[in-house]
Amino acid sequence: MAPIDRREALRAVGSAAVSGMLAGGAQDAAAQATGVQPDPPRELIPNGADMGSLFPEVERLVRRNEYPCSFLNDRFRSVEEYRKAGREIVRNALGYQPALVSAAPQLVDRQDLGEFIREKVLFSTSADFRVPAYVHIPKGLKRPAPAIVDLHSHGGMFLFGKEKVIDFGNNHPVMTEYHKVNYAGRPTRVCRHYDRRFHVR
Predict the structure, then answer these.
(1) Whether the Cβ atoms of residue 153 and residue 164 lie closer than 8 Å to each other
(2) In three state form, how does the secondary structure of the chain look?
(3) Domain edges within the chain
(4) Ranges of residues in the chain whose predicted pLDDT is under 70
(5) pLDDT (tens digit per residue) in 13-71
(6) What pairing do the DSSP bridges indicate for beta strands 191-194 and 130-138?
(7) Dist. CA 105–CA 123, nearest whole Å
């Protein structure tokens, strides 16, 4: 059969659709004109999967492949063993493995803010980086207590960081609105004693 161009194929399909659609002639004419057979009819059974009719094919591919790093794999005898292997995989994927260093924490500022003490500390995460952090310590704390690590986001706004989650009392108008929208006007500021636990509020 001599090859036909796209216009001829579309013309043949259009003519067939007009002349024989009710009897299924459109598909037959298109197949004859292009040499491409239509998809065979198949029974579609609801399976409750979000992928619909693709689910059986995906499931078949999953079963055909082995995932040695899956927790479901028999190679891991405990959660801790799985975590250790997982951390190594992530580090290798990131390609960033700085040498271990001492945190070498350093207290650089301390303020009494009434109900709590705010300390500013620096610590090392690698030989290249010293990270600043603020620690809020409830007054009267005499023994170890639970702590909350509050990591700020960026979300494309790189001008502010710590100011997003800590109220320093002299906020930029942008941060005042940010606190109002995201934290109901109450970012992390005050530590209160409640039900024998310390909560950062």
Answers:
(1) yes
(2) CCCCCHHHHHHHHHHHHHHHCCCCHHHHHHHHHHCCCCCCCCCCCCCCCCCHHHHHHHHHHHHHCCCCCCCCCCCCCCHHHHHHHHHHHHHHHHCCCCCCCCCCCEEEEEEECCCEEEEEEEEECCCCCEEEEEEEEECCCCCCCCCCCCCCCCCCCCCCCHHHCECCCCCCHHHHHHHHHHHCCCCECCEEEECCEEEEC
(3) 1-38, 52-94, 106-200
(4) 1-6, 9-10, 12-31, 33, 47, 189-201
(5) 666 555 555 445 556 666 676 777 777 887 777 767 777 778 888 888 877 777 788 88
(6) unpaired
(7) 4
pLDDT at 131: 93
Whether residue 107 contacts residue 137, with contact meaning beta carbons closer than 8 Å, is answered with no
Neighbours of 30 (CB within 10 A): 21
- With vertex at residue 115, the alpha carbon angle to CA 113 and CA 117, rounded to the nearest 5 degrees, is 50
**Burial of 179 by CB count in 10 Å (0-12 exposed, 13-18 middle, 19+ buried)?**
buried
Residue of 163, 160, 137 lying closest to 148 (CA atoms):
137
- The pTM (predicted TM-score) of the whole model is 0.50
Q: Which residues contact 106 (CB under 8 A, 6 or more apart)?
A: 121, 122, 123
Q: What is residue 197's predicted lDDT score, i.e. its pLDDT? A: 36
